[in-house]
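Protocol check, entry for the methods section draft. Step 1: assemble the input record (protein sequence plus ligand SMILES). Step 2: submit for complex structure prediction. Step 3: store the structure tokens unaltered in the notebook. Ligand used here: zinc ion. Step 1 record:
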Amino acid sequence: MAATQHAERYFTYLRSQLSSDARRYIVHQLAQEWVAGLSDISPRPLPFAFETFLLAKEHELPSCVLKRAFYELLRKEGLGLPSEGLPHYDHKFTRGDYFLLVRTRETFDMTWLKAVIRKPEAHRDESCVCVPGDAQTRYWAASVIDVGLDIQYLHDPVCGLLELMRLELAGYCDRCAGKARTAWKEARLQLWVHLDQVLTRYQYPQ
Ligand SMILES: [Zn+2]
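Step 3, stored output:
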């Protein structure tokens, strides 16, 4: 509760500053903190995503702040929505916001499930020196399913796909492993572009 009250006070302060001569400085600080390049993303979540998402909507903050906060909500348990509510500003969270979060999470979850539910294809042409498929299936299960990557990244395929790209991919020849990694890289990029597309409903400065 103390942490919630502290957050409320802090965001009330930010609101007042964003309506004052200090706006430019505060916007700059928030844009430095809520970066939204793919290379900026790590599995470590940023706190106060819900409050920051509302702040970005309310005060037309740069698009990177909105995008990063939205992404942080997507990958949090319960979509990052506060179970106890935040009385001063949670009414600014609309049904449209909620449905956009739900639909985008579905896209994220499905992308991840398609990536991990079965092993990458081997091409099996004359240049392919992959081991037999059943051995690849065992290796895939051992390196992805048995260690829990499938569950760990269910709501965060942006980080999960990067984890897959870093796997050794035992049993795959270089060419087939390279094609799998390229597909995961492309899927990751598409998710990041998809976020831009769904967030165009909010008209914000770049
Ligand atoms: Zn191969």
